[in-house]
Design a protein that fits this description.
Elements: H1 3-6, H2 22-25, E1 30-35, H3 43-57, E2 62-67, H4 76-87, E3 95-98, H5 99-102, H6 107-110, E4 117-120, H7 133-147, E5 152-155, H8 158-168, E6 175-177, E7 196-200, H9 209-217, E8 225-229, H10 237-247, E9 254-258, H11 262-271, E10 274-277, H12 286-293, E11 298-301, H13 306-309, E12 315-318, H14 323-335, H15 337-353, H16 357-370
Parallel strand pairs: 1-2, 1-3, 3-4, 4-5, 5-6, 7-8, 7-10, 8-9, 10-11, 11-12
Helix pairs in contact: 3-16, 9-14, 12-15
Length: 371
């Protein structure tokens, strides 16, 4: 049995013998461990930072434990510092650990941590694109063993919950889906002419920017420009994508913008006509939610959690790694005004149903108080 399940955190009983009030429980301390620079603009780090802020706004004391960078393959010294930091958390405090670290820490070290463990799994580490099969097998085995130690597991999507139940043996009653919150946009949409195709995602192979660029080259006869926003995440990826843009003859139409400010990103969403991201896998895809709250039609790949995140009323989904199919979907949305308006309406309706961060924090807080 996992160490959270064998040693559940019991509710503190007041001197009168009655259970704590809801308002008191909301202030119980929790530690939240996140590897790397907290200001890094990735979907996972944004989720973690916003959840920490929302839990604090709800009145809960949250200790942000900053783990060293390098996960899921930390240097030995970084791993030792990480284990020491997690071990220093009081045994009475629930400890949320971001999945990038949780799934990679040696199981025997994780088992020695006294705090009730809550894993926050954005997506299983072994599903990262480009891993050698042997390496993926080792990572999956370690993560499965570590999840067995968790008192509870938080995931951002029903899809990830299903993967953890099916492939990692996590019982459904130990998993809670906590959808990422969204911030409602300020100001009306103001699409540019020519139409702006916006893509937002790390410059990593999993995000499929190479597929998007090849697809854009197939619709060069149409009037559009494209901006790809995302920080460099893998060695050589910027150079590889820049070379592909040049080879495709799109240097004047496709901009690799890198990491941009929040204000600049909000402006790009406001001025875009459609959102396109050719991910090879997604555990949720926060950029899709951001696109939909702006009422942008989505073109994406039917993989991972994308179909759960983007309904058919809001976008066109095609098989992954298929530039021809992706270009066909882009052409349909750009050339068919009725289709584009219909998908925009569907995206806006779906975006309106998404939770804000206070709702996400409430769901997570309920898990913490039940441990």
């Amino acid at each position: 049995m996992g160490h959270g399940a064998g040693n559940p955190l019991r509710m503190t009983i007041a001197a009168s013998g009655t259970e704590m009030s809801a308002s008191t429980r909301s202030r119980r301390a929790v530690a939240f461990a996140v590897p790397g620079d907290p200001s890094t603009l990735t979907g996972g780090s944004i989720y973690d930072a916003r959840l920490i802020a929302a839990l604090r706004s709800a009145g809960r004391k949250v200790t942000h434990v900053v783990l060293p960078d390098g996960f899921p393959d930390p240097a030995p010294s970084a791993l030792a510092r990480s284990v020491a930091a997690l071990s220093a958390v009081p045994a009475t405090d629930p400890l949320i650990v971001d999945g990038l670290a949780f799934g990679a820490i040696p199981t025997e070290a994780l088992a020695r941590i006294a705090s009730p463990l809550v894993a926050l799994v954005h997506h299983p580490l072994a599903l990262e694109t480009g891993l050698a099969p042997a390496r993926a097998t080792v990572m999956a085995a370690c993560e499965a063993a570590n999840l067995g130690l968790a008192a509870h597991v938080l995931v951002p999507s029903p899809h990830t919950a299903q993967v953890l139940q099916r492939d990692y043996g996590v019982p459904p009653d130990r998993i809670t889906v906590a959808l990422p919150g969204v911030d409602r946009p300020v100001g009306a949409q103001a699409p540019e002419i020519p139409p702006l195709v916006l893509s937002v995602g790390l410059l990593a192979r999993r995000k499929g920017h190479d597929v998007l660029i090849r697809a854009l080259a197939r619709i060069a006869d149409l009037d559009w420009r494209a901006v790809i926003v995302g920080r460099n995440h893998e060695p050589g990826m910027v150079e590889e994508l820049a070379a592909l843009v040049d080879e495709s003859g799109l240097a004047c139409r496709v901009t690799l913008a890198g990491e941009v400010s929040a204000a600049r990103l909000a402006a790009l969403y406001r001025h875009a006509t459609l959102f396109a991201l050719a991910s090879r896998y997604e555990g949720y895809g926060m950029a899709f939610a951001e696109a939909m709250i702006h009422g942008l039609p989505v073109v994406a790949c039917r993989t991972g959690a994308v179909a759960d995140t983007v309904p058919a009323t809001a976008g066109l989904l095609v098989p992954p790694d298929d530039a021809a199919a992706f270009s066909g979907a882009l052409r349909r949305v750009l050339a068919d005004d009725d289709l584009r308006r219909s998908l925009a309406k569907g995206a806006k309706a779906e975006g309106a149903r998404l939770p804000d961060w206070s709702g996400t924090a409430g769901r997570v807080g309920g898990v913490l108080d039940r441990l």
